[in-house]
Design a protein that fits this description.
Helix content is 21%, strand content 32%. It has 179 residues and is an alpha+beta fold. The strands form 3 sheets. It has a 5-stranded mixed beta sheet.
Length: 179
């Protein structure tokens, strides 16, 4: 999987903020994106980095001039003995853009869905900044209780802060399923 990528331009106060969404587990692709000077905000979905590998990803991002906040991937149930990981989401922002944690944490994943929801505030994309949320829903489950709980948790964050927001993710389900 090479990952799916999208680039967005959002108008800020005096210049544009370049957002890039990367969905996939390819560390070489993430490394390349972190070195791209045109990208100012990178939202990573399903990075699959846990433990020391996540710490290494965070350090690499810092070395490239980024602030990275997010949720580590989790060892998967039956594959835990083989160190297989699933999920993991992050928001990476260039160091020249102010970032503030929300409720002093970055992993907002519900207990049964660890590594699937992150949120932070950035001073970009418009006056007063905005919330950024990264979401990775469970695949092959549609509108399951677990997926609804992730979306409801994201909604609570958005309602609590009453701020403009950008939510990017791999939703793994048709929008119609949530109506």
């Amino acid at each position: 999987r090479g990952g799916r990528k999208n680039r967005y331009q959002a108008k800020g106060n005096t210049n544009h903020t370049s957002f890039y969404v990367h969905i996939g587990s390819g560390l070489p692709q993430l490394t390349k994106l972190l070195r791209d000077p045109a990208i100012q905000v990178l939202i990573g979905i399903e990075h699959r980095q846990a433990g020391q590998n996540y710490a290494n990803l965070t350090q690499m991002a810092q070395n490239q001039g980024w602030q990275l906040v997010g949720a580590q991937a989790r060892l998967t149930g039956s594959e835990a003995n083989n160190n297989m990981t699933s999920a993991g989401v992050f928001v990476a922002v260039r160091k020249n853009i102010r970032v503030a944690s929300i409720d002093n944490k970055s992993d907002f994943s519900p207990t049964e869905s660890q590594g699937r929801l992150t949120a932070t505030w950035i001073d970009a994309a418009g006056p007063g900044g905005c919330l950024l949320l990264g979401v990775y829903l469970w695949h092959s489950e549609g509108n399951s209780d677990r997926n609804q709980n992730i979306i409801l948790t994201a909604r609570k964050i958005i309602k609590k802060y009453k701020a403009p927001f950008i939510m990017a993710g791999d939703f793994n389900v048709a929008l119609e399923k949530f109506r």
